[in-house]
Write the structure tokens for this entry.
Amino acid sequence: MISSVGGGIETFLLPYIDQKDSLLTHAPADLVTAEDVADYPTDFSAMPEEWIDRLSKRGEQVTRALVKQYWSSREQAVGDPVRNSSGGDP
């Protein structure tokens, strides 16, 4: 979210693929675990569709869990923090 005073960053989330699952208080039941994605090699080979799906689902799940965990009270006060962070729909 951007502060209305001075345009500075008021709050932010930093989700990452290797986020510790045990720290996610709002993880979904079908969470793609950090362990499930830990073995993907960091090379420049073409990524198989299975891995694209797995990694992107994990990223979305971690981001949504963190929004619920850290911005739930803010969401009630100002609306959807994901939508409002950029000034419009994502």
